[in-house]
TrEMBL record, chains A, B:
Pfam family name, one: GntR
Gene3D superfamilies, alphabetized: Chorismate lyase-like, Winged helix-like DNA-binding domain superfamily/Winged helix DNA-binding domain
Gene name tied to this protein: phnF
Domain HTH gntR-type: 21-89
Assigned keywords, A-Z: DNA-binding, Transcription, Transcription regulation
PROSITE patterns: HTH_GNTR
Domain of life of the source: Bacteria
Alphabetized SMART domains for the sequence: HTH_GNTR, UTRA
SUPFAM superfamilies (alphabetical): Chorismate lyase-like, Winged helix' DNA-binding domain
The protein's name in its UniProt record: Phosphonate metabolism transcriptional regulator PhnF
DNA sequence: AAACATTTGTGCGTATGTATC
DNA sequence: TGATACATACGCACAAATGTT
């Protein structure tokens, strides 16, 4: 069975044996390059493992080792019975003084949506009190949300507000599905991002459930402080982003 | 054997049974709070699992479930035979127009060091050519480095420079262990960060080897473009940060 | 070097509550 | 109302890593 003409690039057999670099690693680098150069567009289906193995002149096990690495890197995704596909590139998510989920997602040509998961008033922990510059233990309103682009979950997280200043904000969020619009209604539409802190970790059960992630994926944990035009903190948030669906971008 | 007086907080048995919230989850929240409030300082050793289980009045398995969650969250770390410890907080790593590894690490009161892993001249991939605004395939100098704070690996990555403009930069980096100082010698000390892109993924074998990470940890993949004062790109870099040792911070 | 205690890591079996069909 | 599946919780035993004597 000869390779068809419309097959993706991943050029035929140019791996060097005994070059000191493992065959599977050479294959990783070739396919990686093909994806980065744009020869393999997002959504493209790769040839079957058997076919690829033949082209590179290696055993299917060797090829699978390469595909496993590319999968770990988040570049491809394999489904039994369907094939292996080049993944869609992540949403570019700019972090700036004016960071708004819905605007960013719209700007990427995708449809944003938000869903209220829950809300309650609770005493502020030391961390949240510091961020919001409130006395520790003050009442804060906590709002848990899930946010999606084209129905795909992007981020899930909690937002904390000074309870007194933001009465009924949770109802407004539930009604509009948007924090921005809810804050506008309260006359706080002009908020701006003051600080953003970013770490990452393995997605736990809850992350996976909320964000519909398979096991072994990672989330970026993004803490943010938003304030009013006078830079007084209004909101502290801690959200988990599906790491392989988002790329955070900082411009200076 | 009674608990000693100097034992950490994690108050004795105040978990509610049949409250609708699983016991292990209540324990997570208590210890989490103790860490965040500062009652459990970084580096503190927690009581043994047996002891904690007794204090909370639960089975050791139940307690272990709570510890596993805290471990996933990166708050604690356990070693067989030694015990369970509250982790040191991550280095705060500000991303700004003037982002310098050594300055940041020094500013955190830690000793920065850098080690050259390798370097070579290679043709620019499409991505790198775009970032550096060079014709695709131009010669670029690639420098691979590992950077540490107090001897602990923080980040490993590649830096690409226009080959012509940065001749012998690799030798300077090898000599000084610092990209900043090497660039200064070439009269390019005044570079500034133009753009930063951040994603995250599970650490692969190479990441784990370079960064001395145990299996299952995550890395943040940070791509950066640095330019001269006229905002002409000088350097493109792609580095992997040990996610549980660093918190990237963006101020607006 | 060898024996030992301490502590976390892992496995098995069992019982109970809770949500779902 | 069952029937079923799943998460929670407990008890006991042993393996593996570490530090000390």
């Amino acid at each position: 069975m000869l390779p068809s003409d419309d097959a993706p690039v991943t050029a035929p057999s140019d791996v060097e044996r005994g070059s000191g670099v493992a065959l599977w690693r050479q294959i990783v680098e070739r396919i990686e390059a093909d994806i980065h150069e744009g020869h393999l567009a997002p959504g493209t289906r790769l040839p079957t493992e058997m076919e690829l193995a033949e082209r590179f002149g290696v055993n299917r096990h060797t090829l699978r080792r390469a595909l496993a690495t590319l999968n770990e890197q988040g570049l491809i995704e394999a489904t039994p019975g369907r094939g292996t596909f080049v993944k869609e590139p992540p949403i570019r998510y700019p972090i700036s003084s004016r960071t708004r989920f819905s605007e960013i997602v719209s700007g990427e040509g995708r449809a944003p949506s938000g869903r209220l998961i829950g809300s309650r008033v609770e005493p502020a922990s030391a961390e949240i009190a510091t961020a919001l510059r409130l006395p520790p233990g003050s009442d804060v309103l906590r709002i848990d949300m899930l946010r999606e682009a084209d129905g795909v979950p992007i981020t899930a997280g909690s937002h904390w507000y000074e309870a007194e200043r933001c009465r009924d904000l949770d109802l407004l969020v539930a009604a509009t599905g948007s924090v921005t619009r809810a804050l506008e209604t309260l006359g706080l539409g002009d908020y701006r991002r003051l600080e953003t802190r970013i770490t990452a970790r393995l997605a736990d059960e809850e992350d996976r459930r909320l964000l519909s992630l398979p096991a072994g994926r990672t989330v970026m944990v993004v803490e943010a402080i938003n304030g009013d035009p006078q830079r007084r903190p209004i909101q502290f948030s801690r959200a988990r982003f599906a790491a392989d669906r988002v790329q955070l971008v900082v411009k200076n």
